[in-house]
TrEMBL record:
Catalyzes the oxidation of 5,10-methylenetetrahydrofolate to 5,10-methenyltetrahydrofolate and then the hydrolysis of 5,10-methenyltetrahydrofolate to 10-formyltetrahydrofolate. It comes from Bacillus salipaludis. Its EC number is 1.5.1.5, 3.5.4.9. The gene is folD. GO terms for molecular function: methenyltetrahydrofolate cyclohydrolase activity; methylenetetrahydrofolate dehydrogenase (NADP+) activity. This is Bifunctional protein FolD. The lineage of its organism: Bacteria, Bacillati, Bacillota, Bacilli, Bacillales.
Length: 285
């Protein structure tokens, strides 16, 4: 079997058009969705991500505010800035780009963001709301994965989903979103014994381990849906995922490529969450 490619770039473009239309509607009601991004220090990858977020905001007609802080900024100064943004009426979403310098407590920073503006979906209140199936901001990469499957007409109820990786940002929440949609979920991680035994049971496999080409054809069953969250560089410096695309795409039913798979969905869902926050702020007026 040769897998059908799930084209994240195309699906993201379609979703962005829908979001842009909703932004126009909100603007006609006097609200421009606004996203504040705080970047601390000069991590090169973070700078690139942040630039892409600003660009996406502009393309969709949203207001974007970039706040750059020096690597040496104190935790107190950062918390004071977040407090100011929590109160700012033109800002509907606040994102603090991670990782933060070591002298700053990441958990404390995330918890200082108003849950009503937590468009990353990292605040424990939003995580708790997601776990109990309540209205919440869903973390962007996991949410983007669910949209990719929905747009590809892949059903989830009753399927066995195996998530490889257990990060707070991707692995843990994506398993929860699948569970919310009635899948049977198995989590695998670095201490899992006999990984292959588990992954071979998967109707849907999500690879989020951060190791280039880690998942091979022998890990998957014929026709499985394979979602690759990895963004790595191989020995030749070429962008690659956590899945060995060349061999797995010969066996899978569906597969997301890297690039142009899950990646474009992350910023798209951030834009969606910012729109949602702005719309909900209107309802609270
Ligand atoms: N760093 C890498 N990915 C993310 C993300 O999705 N949100 C934030 N805030 N920081 C990140």
């Amino acid at each position: 079997m040769t897998a059908q490619i799930i084209n994240g770039k195309e699906i993201a473009a379609k979703k962005r058009l829908e979001i842009a239309e909703e932004v126009e509607k909100l603007k006609s009601q006097g609200i421009t969705p606004g996203l504040a991004v705080i970047l601390v220090g000069n991590n090169h990858a973070s700078q690139t991500y942040v630039k892409n977020k600003e660009k996406a905001c502009k393309e969709l007609g949203m207001y974007s505010l970039l706040i750059e802080m020096l690597e040496e900024v104190s935790e107190g100064e950062l918390l004071a800035k977040i407090e100011e943004l929590n109160e700012a009426t033109e800002i509907h979403g606040i994102l603090v780009q991670l990782p933060l310098p070591k002298h700053i407590d990441e958990k404390k920073v995330i918890e200082s963001i108003s849950p009503l503006k937590d468009v990353d979906g990292f605040h424990p209140i939003n995580i708790g709301r997601m776990m109990t199936g309540q209205n919440a901001f869903l973390p962007c990469t996991p949410y983007g994965i669910m949209v990719l499957l929905e747009e590809s007409d892949i059903s989830i109820s009753g399927k066995h989903v195996v998530v490889v990786g257990r990060s707070n940002i991707v692995g843990k929440p994506v398993g929860q979103l699948f569970l919310n949609q009635h899948a049977t979920v198995t989590y695998c991680h670095s201490r899992t014994k006999d990984l292959k035994f588990h992954t071979n049971q998967a109707d849907i496999i999500v690879a989020a381990v951060g190791i280039p080409n880690f998942i091979k054809a022998e890990h998957i069953k014929d026709g499985a849906v394979v979602i690759d969250v990895g963004i790595n560089r191989n020995e030749a410096g070429k962008l690659c995922g956590d899945v060995d695309f060349d061999e797995v795409s010969e066996k899978a039913g569906y597969i997301t490529p890297v690039p142009k798979g899950v990646g474009p969905m992350t910023i798209t869902m951030l834009m969606y969450n910012t729109l949602k926050s702005a719309a909900e702020s209107l309802n609270r007026k």
